[in-house]
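Treating backbone geometry as a discrete language has practical consequences that deserve illustration. The sequence in question and its structure tokens are set out directly beneath this paragraph.
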Amino acid sequence: MYITTYSKIHFTPLEPVECEILAEDIAHAQSMMTRANGHFPEFYSVAQHSIACGREAIARGYADRLVLACLVHDGSEAYLSDITRPVKGVLDGYLAIEKKLQDAIYHRFLGSVLSEEEEAAVSSVDDACLYYEFEHYMGERLLDSPPKVYSEMVFETRDFSAVEQELMEMITLYQKKTAG
């Protein structure tokens, strides 16, 4: 079974083929997907979150490879959708499916999967952005003390195509930077 992506590829999420993983499919799908499963009072897309994570990685002075990893860290959601954290862990086989696909995405864009140290850095950025998203949109603090952020978090409803274009441009730029 396959899904038809934005670029018209018949993509099999359970058996990902790296050359079929396209930045334009990820950027388009994520620009149309909302964070928090639609429960924020305003639309804030997964693509906006990915951009915020990329900007935070840049502000932290992370290597270009880690910036790119932050930009595509939720890439699997473009093919699997976004499943809330409490549910992911109890769906039989889901975490393995997600990891296999996300590893294929990292391999496609970075040339290899992330090391444990890199995974920790990406998780730190992701969790910090998540914290401030929930604080802003829901008035909820997910941790006892706020994580330090080095970038300015921007929360606004934006045009889908502008967000898609920005994410595409950032992915393309950091692909070029890491290829050299």
